[in-house]
Write a structure and sequence with these properties.
alpha+beta, three-stranded antiparallel beta sheet, 3 strands, globular
């Protein structure tokens, strides 16, 4: 487990690479995909955080969500002030405050 610093950039540099990941699907308790995070510019930080949470916690529950919020560092305050601007952080807020946990599925790049 990393010790999150005050900056997202520093935290992401401590996370495992996402080179082999095509996307991450978040699955609800009914087996439905409720969100996907693609491996594309602008999303790779979130992809790395969610992959890391999967490796560390196995599922996206309240403990995982709270740790994920710490990893997002300074972006957490912006997300709190602008709901909807950071959906991947909004999701962590929702789960950390009692929302239904989600399963994290890592979809590898197929060659």
């Amino acid at each position: 487990m990393i010790q999150p610093s005050m900056t997202f950039k520093d935290n992401v540099q401590q996370l495992p690479p996402v080179d082999g990941v095509q996307r991450i699907d978040l699955i609800d308790d009914k087996g439905m995909v409720v969100a996907s995070i693609e491996n594309q510019p602008g999303k790779q930080g979130s992809l790395a955080v969610y992959q890391y949470l999967h490796q560390l916690f196995g599922t996206l529950d309240a403990n995982a969500a709270e740790h994920g919020l710490a990893v997002f560092a300074e972006h957490m305050a912006d997300a709190r002030n602008r709901p909807g601007a950071h959906p991947n952080i909004d999701r962590l807020f929702a789960i950390a405050t009692g929302g239904t946990p989600l399963r994290i599925d890592i979809i590898a790049i197929s060659h």
